[in-house]
Amino acid sequence: MTILKVLLRQLLLRPATNCFPAKHAPKSVSAFLARASKDTHAVTPPVPVPPGFRGKIAYERDKCIGCQLCVKICPARAIEFLPEEKKVRIFVARCCFCSQCNDVCPVGCLSMTDEFLLSSYDKYSEDLIVTG
Ligand code: SF4
Ligand code: SF4
Known about the structure:
This protein has about 130 residues and is of the alpha+beta class.
């Protein structure tokens, strides 16, 4: 395919990315985000996630039987076993969203949510450690 054909095809495709949350770039992004969190500034709605999307992991602590299968299968070593409580905690900053822990859990207490805005300056922040 010639370059011209590729360019023409690209022109007709819908954008694959979401618009920036504000219509025009704000002078201060942090001030804009603060206003948006208080619902005093309209934001561009995020693109809906497709079915089966693998976002931030969720953990139903009460259902967990402490079998450690998730710990053993996790390729990113994102799941830590807490021996005294016979429960786990998950470090989201290490997770590669493969969903293998969900598949192996015998009681179905792990799941992938549609939450994907996970960036943080602190990889050990409360938001990024799932304890159920
Ligand atoms: S989704 Fe994959 S990387 Fe993330 S905690 Fe589960 S097994 Fe580990
Ligand atoms: S596989 Fe499920 S039941 Fe077993 S320790 Fe992990 S979360 Fe708990």
